[in-house]
Amino acid sequence: MGAVVLFAAVSLDGYVGRDDDMPGPLFDWYGNGDVELSFSDRDRPFHVTRATAEFLRPFAERAGVMVVGRRLFDITNGWEGVPPNGEHVVVVTHRPADDWPHAGTAPFSFVPDVGTGIERAREMAGDRDVTVSAGDVGGQALRAGLVDRVVLALVPVVLGSGKPYFGAGGPPEIEFEDPQVVQGRRVTHLVYDVRR
Questions:
Q1: What gap in Å lies between CA 113 and CA 125, rounded to an integer?
Q2: Which domains does the chain have, with CATH numbers?
Q3: CA 176 → CA 75, 89, 129, 140, distances in Å?
Q4: Spatial contact of 189 and 58, defined as CB atoms under 8 Å apart
Q5: Which residues form the Bacterial bifunctional deaminase-reductase C-terminal domain (predicted)?
Q6: Tens-digit pLDDT profile for residues 180-196
Q7: Of 28, 61, 73, 77, which sees the most CB atoms within 10 A?
Q8: pLDDT in tens, 117-133
Q9: Are 68 and 93 a contacting pair, CB within 8 Å?
Q10: Chain-centroid distance, C-alpha 73
């Protein structure tokens, strides 16, 4: 069985987006290199540095299913029915998207809570990884002990306020192993395994 990985770009002060949910400079590193890379959606390529590409490529290849919250789903319009990372997206929500143009045809599932979402994602992913978006859903999964690894793309910017990486309320005290560190351009990739 693969790992459950909480992943996102984050500011030095711990935010994954501004107050209006937009990433601002947090995504600039996705376009500051000359190596083309994409996750599962080949129509959305990035251009990153060689170091970042070598770090992200195996990460992307291991990802089977992505778990997100309804807010991210709405902001992106469900990526127009194409999973951005992995082959399936599980959306945690109490409001299924029955009126979404891709409902019933896109590889998206809607579940009422994080525990059910992670369980369903793990079943679908098999021996591949499940990625979880940071923010409220990621924080809930971490607090419930469902996350194996936290991956931060640390960007050298302070946003001042915004959407916290671990969501509202923050996580409880959790210890991690020493990090793997990969230096990109305008981003530092940090991988922390949860200490069991």
A1: 18
A2: 4-193 (3.40.430.10)
A3: 31, 27, 19, 17
A4: no
A5: 123-181
A6: 999 999 999 999 999 98
A7: 73
A8: 999 999 999 999 999 99
A9: no
A10: 12
